[in-house]
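RECORD TYPE: inverse folding
INPUT: structure tokens
STRUCTURE:
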């Protein structure tokens, strides 16, 4: 949204933003019901946009600077730094798009990023995802595949998530952590005895 607003003439920014807010209400409702479906619907917003490397970089930088960077909690960054110092490899697993996630991964010192990717056609995004949305059970599948390829023992790995959409990832490792969790994940963490961290 930030990148799109920057591209529009000043006179069109307010009407576009108002319409986008209405769409956001729908996105939030769908997200509450099904994160994977939300991703499929939301990423249609990218249909027809420039998929070139410079355009991707601009989109990723705008999203990082305007929305993500202000939400990188100091305690989270400190925890990640401590994990790296203990020899852990940091892998960012997100349903966000790859060109945004790469920028976040750089800020976190991640060695690898697992993220959603958009299909391209004639240099433009189609608005469709390549493969399944990186959410729910798919997060677990992606982690298991990465661990098998890298020879990692998932029983010794840690994972951090804040919603039920992260459950597949949390259940894949030996040390799951709920971070500032949603109500549903908080209840599951309590039932299963998972550590709950508050980073907000």
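DESIGNED SEQUENCE:
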């Amino acid at each position: 949204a930030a990148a799109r607003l920057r591209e529009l003439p000043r006179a069109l920014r307010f009407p576009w933003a108002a319409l986008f807010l209405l769409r956001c209400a729908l996105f939030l409702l769908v997200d509450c019901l099904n994160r994977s479906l939300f991703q499929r619907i939301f990423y249609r917003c990218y249909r027809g946009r420039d998929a070139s490397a410079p355009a991707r970089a601009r989109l990723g930088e705008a999203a990082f600077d305007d929305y993500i960077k202000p939400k990188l909690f100091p305690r989270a960054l400190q925890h990640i730094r401590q994990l790296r110092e203990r020899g852990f490899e940091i892998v960012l697993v997100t349903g966000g798009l790859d060109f945004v996630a790469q920028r976040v991964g750089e800020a976190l010192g991640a060695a690898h990023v697992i993220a959603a990717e958009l299909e391209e056609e004639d240099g433009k995004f189609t608005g469709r995802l390549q493969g399944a949305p990186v959410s729910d059970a798919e997060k677990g599948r992606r982690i298991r595949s990465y661990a098998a390829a890298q020879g990692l023992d998932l029983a010794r790995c840690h994972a951090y998530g804040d919603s039920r959409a992260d459950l597949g990832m949390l259940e894949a490792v030996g040390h799951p952590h709920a971070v500032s969790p949603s109500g549903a994940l908080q209840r599951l963490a309590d039932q299963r005895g998972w550590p709950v961290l508050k980073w907000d």
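NOTES: The mean pLDDT is 88.
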